[in-house]
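Bug report (template v2)

What were you trying to do?
Predict the complex of my protein with 6-O-phosphono-beta-D-fructofuranose.

What happened?
Run completed; filing so the output is reviewed.

Input:
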Amino acid sequence: MTHDSNFLPLTQRPAWKALHTHSEQVKDTHLRELFAADPKRGERLVIEIPDLYLDYSKNRITDETLRLLIRLANECQLRERIESMFNGEAINSTEGRAALHTALRAPEGARIMLDGVNVVAEVHAVLDRMSVFAEQLRNRQWLGHTGKPIVNIVNIGIGGSDLGPVMAYEALKSYSQRNLTLRFVSNVDGTDFVEATRDLDPEQTLFIVCSKTFTTLETLTNARAARNWCLQKLGDEQAISRHFVAVSTNAEEVKKFGIDTDNMFGFWDWDGGRYSMDSAIGLSTMIAVGPNHFRAMLEGFHAMDEHFRHTPFERNMPVIMALLKLWYNNFLDAQSVAVFPYCQYLKRFPAYLQQLTMESNGKHVTLEGANVDYQTAPIYWGEPGTNGQHSFFQLLHQGTRLIPCDFIGFYKSLNPLGDQHDLLMANCFAQTEALAFGKTEAEVKAEGTPDWLAPHRSFEGNRPSNTLLLDRLTPRTLGLLVALFEHSVFTQGVIWNIDSFDQWGVELGKALAKKTAGELKGADEPQLDHDSSTNTLIRRYRRFNRG
Ligand code: F6P
């Protein structure tokens, strides 16, 4: 057994043990004390890069905490692992693949070799094809089967083939071409398709069927519904080529479905679904905002890639954000993380982050297949501010749980309306202040509150948050923001020694659903071999549907 700390299990690493001891010493320290002891804390514990400012001073950490967390990152060989990712090594070990999403935004002319091929050249070839297609649609030159221009674009996909495109479309709506209608269908619940298409004319509608594997039940079911919907009105199989395009890595299945591979935009197995909004999966985004804005978004992603790859950990935004979350998760027993974009355009950002963080790091075994003896991904959730303030913020302020929060705000609004942006941001800043510093019983009583009511009206504080400030929401700043979280997730995965790029946990449910679908359908009573609960639920459902 080696004593080299590089090979020790996580909880036996010197930095991990030191963090444990350290957490006992600092866990009761209040942010009030930390700020009082260092009047410049709010100026010191910040990181600024072009277009993005992170204030992490309102965290329950000391300089020693940061030092130990960075030591832990070093002990876990984070620097080497970052290089492995950028160099295209097969870091997704359970699937034997690279995780090369950073190649999707590498500038034209860059070289990243994988199996003897420069993948950047392939990426740009697809981007160029996407651009031509997007411009044709935007200029009303892509005509439907009956000669009318396509004006409605419906993206069919789920998970990474939906959440990124929807989030980006909503986020960049202000830059979108408003005479195009964009819709998104993901759920196998027929309601999703029916509601998304009820006011659309098939003659002027194009479906983008997005699926990395092109075998996903929900997507193929919805794609078949779309096909029927089109053919009902257009009555001619020839129509499909004008009304359907596919985004996939699986040309075989695309062909089998009946979409001409000339109408297919490819991507690669080295790009995971939840890391693919900047690949051809973002075709709907490009159609909505145009190729130039899409490329500006890629530049934002790339700027964060460069920052992550080359900046010392002490000033590295994704690394610091990852380590802070790890601190609460593993040493202060926090179970969840909340994200609050103070920006209505980012309303789908929390949902997007849920897949990114929880599908990536919701793992219980190490890369070597051993059970972990520490917590991995926390539960990620959130809502745009200020809406959340009037629903669940009560729990954040006075509940019993520790929930670290990320607040995201912009200096400038894309829709200045009176003083509303000032009000929005005043709320953002006020919440972080209230969470951190609270209001003591003594302060409450001093304001005249009777003794019996004072406990109810006081705020303990010491509730941590980060504040991310950006200039304004643009394609570039969106790219920066998404890449920031991508790399934060990766950093945590490295420390937890898990595979952040597989998702075996979704397979069992998929297999059982396939079996159950057969049992729900047939006219004859099926032989059921589930547990007594599932058997009864199936029988009951059948009784109501099959009489
Ligand atoms: O079931 C989970 C998942 O595999 C996600 O990882 C993925 O983003 C989603 O399904 C959709 O997969 P596909 O793009 O292959 O249809």
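What did the reviewer find?
Residues 475-496 form the longest helix (22 residues). The pocket of 6-O-phosphono-beta-D-fructofuranose is lined by residues 158-161, 211-213, 216, 219, 273-274, 359, 503, 506 (CB under 6 Å).
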